[in-house]
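Objective 1.3, modelling of assemblies. Example input:
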Amino acid sequence: MDKVLLAHGGGGSKSAELTRKVFQRFLRDPLLMEMDDAARLPGQVFTTDSFVVKPLFFPGGDIGRLAVCGTVNDLAVMGAEPLYLSIAFIIEEGFPVAALEKILASISKACRQSGARIVCADTKVVERGKADGLFINTAGIGRPVFSKAVHPSRIRPGDAIMVNGPLGLHGISVLTARGEFGLRASVRSDVAPLWGLISKCRALDVPFMRDPTRGGLAQTLNELTHGKEFGARIREHDLPIPKKVAAVCDLLGFDPLHVANEGKVVMVVARSDAARALKALRRHPLGKAACLIGEITKENQGRVVMATRAGSERIVMPPVGEILPRIC
Amino acid sequence: MAEKTSLSLLAERLRNFPARPRTKIMEVCGTHTVAIRRAGIQHLLPAGAKLVSGPGCPVCVTPDHFIDEAVALARLGVIVTSFGDMLRVPGSRSSLEQERAAGSDIRAVYSPLDALQIAAATGRETVFLAVGFETTAPAIAAAGMMALEKKIANFSLLTALRLVPPALKALITPPQGDAAAEPTAVPQGDAADTEISGFLLPGHVSAVIGKQAYGFLEKHRLPGVISGFTAEDIITSLLHLLEMHNKGIYKIMNNYPRVVRDHGNERSRTVLAEAFAPVDAEWRGLGSIPASGLQLRPAFAVLDARRRFAIEVEAAPPRAGCRCGDVLRGRIDPPACPMFNKACRPDRPLGPCMVSSEGSCCAWVTYG
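Predicted structure (tokens):
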């Protein structure tokens, strides 16, 4: 590997390769090496994320909303209430102030919805052509409040796998907003802050949560099972994939399980609490379409399998490289 | 428990079908390969029957030499546009993906018209890598015509277009020449044991060329079924194939009439034939096949990137250890290749059948 490829930023196995072969040779803090969405510090969790989505505005959201939700959700899926955010802008010379204001209004609204406060910020401007309009970085601190530890070491065979609604909306929204494929599918991104929804389950036994962003559900479930003594089995029949998402994927040869979401959480819930969790999720506006999609299994250790509609089975692999660059 | 759907009933019929032993059905098209494995249809086949993948993945059958030519073009500083899958295919020395990271202007597009637009918008020399079968060739021909009509003089094509029927003919016709030399050419592996019993024929290609284009199969006493891409389409097509094979019926059936007309799409064929003429062409794994490729006709020769840029590339050395060729002939299943999922994996592919999402090797790893 002598050059970084776009594929290395795709969130799939190529990204993992770059992390393993380059980053981890230099950055090896034990907390970092846990490779979670956020670091577990004493009494708090801490995370950061950068946003380079193209285009900056897309149906259902914009880079500002994404920058708040991305970080808030990374805290929320650790079972932590998002408290404080930092935000940093890298802006290209000539960027319209009106567009910046629109993005800031959206940031402010997303903060109100998520309950987190932006408490420090930074701005840099670079020459024309050196950044594609605007990039944003956010970091966040949260406080764990789930009564039982949200930790994958507590996952057991038989645990239920659920998701709070339809999959693939964000990726397809951004893709069609680019107009690259002459597609006009009018799919709205699902980008939303999830703490309000997730907090409904704070008293339940939820050993694992993850927001299936880049790499989609397939990436999340493969990270969940990788190297573990259990597997995951999902049912194609139960996957909430909207018709429009399926149609665009069909056309372009994508697997909907690889497409990014920005307002979804995949939860592994102890079997005894599964019904209660579903009920709690469905009472929240962002969880009305919550559903069971599968279980943790003793079989297929380290792997994700899917029962297909045709009554057969297949494995579900994470995406390999650049499926859709600059989706978030 | 899920209720019995019409799909699960079909699946049950397939499972219980009394197939003749050693029945080998070839799915020609890469899109079928993916659809079959996504639905797990290979696990639903009755005892005695198996599916093998054919030479219908455009990325897979494109020779290394072509990638080397594209890399050479990119290094000249022209804009190289291509369907995305081609970017990752390793040529003999480099891939387009690596060249892009090294600074060449290489852009993934979803249609030759996008490439034409890039040419018009930038004013820079723009080459489109014209790969694919009868499905993509008409759109490429149309883009070429539009370039001439609109006088977009900085647009050209690097062609490696291929035709499906000549490849199928080559697969079922014993090779010419010394018969004694033949056994050494037959590789080991369970799929090599039996001859092909029938073809699951491509849906989109057939929409252009029609049912008539496969008449030669009947002469070789082989059935063929043109199929769509849903699990229902594929299972019913397989049932038809197995039944014809059992009964000794050698017909071409159109099981995709909602898209494929028996006579195909004459307009597409006319456009294609106006711009392109058949030419002998090299296929990875199958060698040179008479009249199986398309070259630009003299009236369109100004669009030929090979003429415009006079690129010269050394002959590509053979790919050591890679058995894509045998996979593309349906002679071995991918796991019979010693590199499968070891040295050659989707995240660092050595052979094109592992690169393309429609490649047989990639589909075996991705969907199991």
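The first strand of chain A starts at residue 39 and ends at 41.
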